[in-house]
Every structure is written in C-alpha cells, then in structure tokens.
Amino acid sequence: MKFATVINCMDGRVQLPVLHYLNHRFGVSLIDTITEPGPNLILAHQKDKPKLISILDRLKISIEKHGSKQVAIIGHHDCAGNPASKDEQIIHIQKAVTFICRQYPDAEVIGVWIDENWQITEIPNRS
Questions:
Q1: What are phi and psi of 6, to 5 degrees?
Q2: What whole-number distance in Å separates Cα of residue 126 and Cα of residue 112?
Q3: Which range marks the domain in which residue 70 is found?
Q4: Angle at the Cα of 43 (from 13 to 100), degrees rounded to 5?
C-alpha cells in the first residue's frame, strides 16, 4: 500500500475533491490527512508554534511510519481559518510548500488551490 499526505483545511467542503484529486495525481490509494483551519497560513508564517509543531509531528508519522513520499498543502476559497484573498493565500501556499520542502527534501511537495466552484488548481512552486 502506498501513502501520500495532505495538509488540508478542516472545512468539509474541500475534503472529497482533494482526496479524489490526490489519489489520481499521486497514484496512491491511501491519503494520510492532517487538518487544521487555514494550514497554509500556519505553515507560511510559522508563528503559531503549537499548531506548527502539531502539523509537523503528524507529518513525521506519515512520512516515517507510513512511507509517504508525497505531500500536498491546500488553500481554498472562503476559508474561515485563513480569510485572506486568493492571491494572498497562493503566496501562503507557496511559502508553506517551500517550508515543508526544507523539512523533507526527498518528498514531492505540491500546493493546491480550490476555487469557489470547488475546482482544483495546482500551484506552481516558486523555487
């Protein structure tokens, strides 16, 4: 069994579209799911240390115990945890991807935006 990992918002509206996309995108049957309100903001700014450590602890389990080699970081329209504009959230996603890439340089890390129609767009990495 092959695992991938998603660091996703807790918002129930984005769960199924993200899982379906990542199953196909990463070619895996199992997705470990780490949820927080506005995780792209938490990872981009790294100011909320308890939440940041919690996300990283759960990601470590997914990578080290489940063998996940791919990670997706999600941002979405109408996010209560990160009410920033789409453009700001995309910057947060890119910064979050860069941060996680530094933590796990051997992992494939992607950013994903979900729009107001719940359609998914992969965000190009800035690096």
A1: -120, 135
A2: 13
A3: 3-123
A4: 105
Helix (H, G, I), strand (E, B) or coil at 80: coil
How many structural domains is the chain composed of?
1
Encode the chain (127 residues) as per-residue pLDDT tens digits: 899 999 999 999 999 999 999 999 999 999 999 999 999 999 999 999 999 999 999 999 999 999 999 999 999 999 999 999 999 999 999 999 999 999 999 999 999 999 999 999 999 876 5
Count CB neighbours of 35 within 10 A: 18
Task: Find tokens 């890390």 and name the residue.
Answer: 109
Amino acid at 67: G
Residue 107 near residue 69, CB atoms below 8 Å: yes
CATH code for the domain in which residue 105 is found: 3.40.1050.10
* Ramachandran angles phi, psi of 121, nearest 5°: -130, 130
Tokens 């506005």, residue located: 38
Distance CA 58, CA 43 (A): 13
Strands 3-8 and 108-114, by their bridges, are unpaired
CB 93 within 8 Å of CB 55: no
